[in-house]
Amino acid sequence: MSLLTIDNAACKGCGICIQACPVSIISMSDDKTPFVSAEKEKRCVLCGHCESICPDSALKHNHLPEMAPIRREKLKEVTPDNIAEYFRSRRSIRAFLPKKVEKETLEEVIDIVRYAPTGVNRQMNRWVVVSDSQTIRQLGEGVIAWMKAMIPVNPELAKRLNFAGLVAAFERGNDVICRNAPHLVIGYTETAYSTGAKDNTIAASHLELLLPAFGLGGCWAGYLMVALQFSPDLKKVIGLNDSYTVHSALMVGYPKYRYFKTPQRKEAQVNWM
Ligand SMILES: Cc1cc2nc3c(=O)[nH]c(=O)nc-3n(C[C@H](O)[C@H](O)[C@H](O)COP(=O)(O)O)c2cc1C
After folding, report:
1. Which residue puts its alpha carbon closest to atom 3 of ligand 1?
2. Quick check: 104 pLDDT over 90?
3. Are 139 and 8 part of one and the same domain?
4. Is the C-beta atom of 222 inside 6 A of ligand 1?
5. DSSP one-letter string for 191-236
6. Is residue 222 part of a domain?
7. Containing domain of residue 41, as a range?
8. Residue nearest to atom 22 of ligand 1 (CA)
9. Ligand 1 mean position, distance from CA 260 (Å)
10. β-strands 26-28, 34-36: how paired?
11. Is the CB–ligand 1 distance for residue 174 below 6 Å?
């Protein structure tokens, strides 16, 4: 079966699908019908832009499942003002209610994140959701053990990231690593996947931004993320071997407190050219 099916009665030959294709494999036939030649088909990245941009529903991509129509009425409330308020009011949440989030809610958030951009549309992001409190504790302790081991090995890094202070705080009972979060969402990809770090960081950032819409909050668990990148033993705790690399780690839960003000941030540094 060819890559595209064109409904000739509906197609006006506008060529928008040709312009939208990121890999430029769609051509226009002499009779004004878009087509992909057999030798170009394998370059398709399955992004679906050709079908989803067609204003006349005249194009069907035969290697993709049925597409859901965009519900424009839902987007009416996404005004620049509303979304700016939403983005600016996002805060890193470090104090959580002692309550687990329903699995369905976490599933829903992770499901939305599938729509984040990925290099060449490869969609290779994977996630580990840790909800077992003992495992979360084990990971926190593992990070501390890794930091202790790193202090003599890489004193410069240890000093820059204040490992000694973090170890002391943790040993005093202050969970500065996972903040007693009820869940950890850890993002990873296959190690061999070249755009894994960027794809997964973008997706994790989408995930963090989505949380407030679900009444949730989160915070990057940077120390955990770095320790998981450097310590194969710690990576084993979440069931991963060398074939996989961790790129993100978020603490997630219901926020214990609300914020009432937005702290100022540095001016944007932009070179306008
Ligand atoms: C890559 C990265 C790693 C981070 N790691 C931690 C962390 O380990 N622990 C923590 O409490 N906050 C961590 N944060 C949160 C930052 O401290 C926070 O984003 C910053 O202070 C600004 O606050 P805001 O997110 O509320 O605007 C991290 C943020 C990023 C982007």
Report:
1. 222
2. yes
3. no
4. yes
5. TT-TTHHHHHHHHHHHHHHHGGGGT-EEEE-HHHHHHHHH-HHHHH
6. yes
7. 4-61
8. 92
9. 19
10. antiparallel
11. no
Query: 32: domain CATH number?
Result: 3.30.70.20
**Going by CA atoms, what residue is nearest to atom 1 of ligand 1?**
222
Q: Which two tokens stand for residue 248?
A: 């993100």
Q: Is the CB of 254 under 6 A from ligand 1?
A: no
Count how many Cα atoms sit within 13 Å of the Cα of residue 241 in the half-sphere of its side chain: 1
Does a structural domain hold residue 268? no
Place of tokens 């312009």: 19
pLDDT per position as a tens digit, 169-203 = 999 999 999 999 999 999 999 999 999 999 999 99
The answer to whether the CB of 89 is under 6 A from ligand 1 is: no
Residue written as token pair 């755009």: 195
Tell which atom from ligand 1 comes closest to the C-alpha of 91: 26
Q: What is the largest CA-CA distance in the chain?
A: 76
Q: Which helix (H) or strand (E) holds 171?
A: helix 163-171
At 125-137, the pLDDT tens digits run 999 999 999 999 9
C-alpha 79 – ligand 1 centre gap (Å): 27
Tell me how far CA of residue 270 lies from CA of 9, 87, 88, 131, 267, in angstroms: 48, 20, 19, 41, 9
Give the C-alpha distances (Å, rounded to integers) separating 185 from 204, 214, 271.
9, 15, 35
Q: Are residues 211 and 115 in the same domain?
A: yes
pLDDT of residue 1: 80
